[in-house]
Amino acid sequence: MNLFEITGSETDPVYQALEISNGNRHYGFLNSVVVASLDTGRPFLSQAIIKALNFHAIICLHSHAGDYRPCPVKVGGYSPPEHYRVQGLMDDFVNNVNRNWEETDPVALATYVLWRINYIHPFINGNGRTARAAAYYVLCVKSGGWLPGKIILPELLRSNREKYIAALQAVDKSLKNGQLDLAPLHVVVSRLLEEQLTT
C-alpha cells in the first residue's frame, strides 16, 4: 500500500492518521536501536540504521521506504545532489561520522548528522524525520542512553520548524561560500536539547 498514491495528498485524513501512527512506532524503534547499540557495545552509526529509521517513518505512506531514492527530487528551492551520487555521499558521510565518533562532542556530532542527511536528502520522503531521528540516535548513544525529557529533541525541532529550517539554510549557504559552518544549527540544537532536559 502506498497511501500517497491512493489519496494523492499528504493532507488527506487517512494519510495523516497513518503518519501519526508511524511516528509513534518510529520513536519506539529508535529507542530500541539506541538500547541495542549500547547493550551490544556497538556504538556507531550505520547506513542500515539510517535506512531502518526511514522505513519506519514512511512505510505504507510512500514508495521506496528505507531505500535510497532512485530519482531526482526538489525541496522547495533546493535541489539535492543527483540520485546517482547518493550512495557514495552516504558512504562518505557515515564513514566520517564514525571516524570522528570518539573525539567529537555529542551535540556537535548530532548537529552534523542532522544537517548532512537533510543536505544529501537520500530518500524519496521522510528525510527530515530520518535526519532528526538519526541525530537523536547519535546524541543518545554518545551520551550513554536515552535522554530524559517530556518532549524529545526530534519533536522539538519539528515544532520549531521555522528556526530549524533557517539554520539548515544558513549552514547550506556557508558551504556554498567554501567554509562549512554548523554554528547556526548547533545553536538551535543546543537550545532545544536544553529545553528537553529541563522540562
Description:
This protein is an all-alpha fold. It is 64% helix and 0% strand. The chain has helices at residues 3-7, 13-39, 47-58, 86-99, 106-120, 127-143, 153-159, 161-176, 183-197. Helix 3 crosses helix 6 (127-143), helix 4 (86-99) packs antiparallel against helix 5 and helix 8 packs antiparallel against helix 9 (183-197). It starts with a helix and ends with a helix. The model has no long low-confidence stretch (mean pLDDT 93).
Topology summary:
Elements: H1 3-7, H2 13-39, H3 47-58, H4 86-99, H5 106-120, H6 127-143, H7 153-159, H8 161-176, H9 183-197
Helix pairs in contact: 2-3, 2-6, 3-6, 4-5, 5-6, 5-9, 6-7, 8-9
Short summary:
This protein has helices at 3-7, 13-39, 47-58, 86-99, 106-120, 127-143, 153-159, 161-176, 183-197. The chain is mainly α and 199 residues long. It is globular.
Largest sheet: none
What proportion of the residues is helical, as a percent range? Answer: 55-70%
Oligomeric form of this entry?
single chain
Task: Name the average pLDDT.
Answer: 93
Contiguous uncertain segments of 5+ residues: none
Count of individual beta strands: 0
Could you name the CATH topology?
Fic-like fold
Beta content comes to: under 5%
Can you tell me the CATH superfamily?
A: Fido-like domain
Topology pattern, helix = H, strand = E: HHHHHHHHH
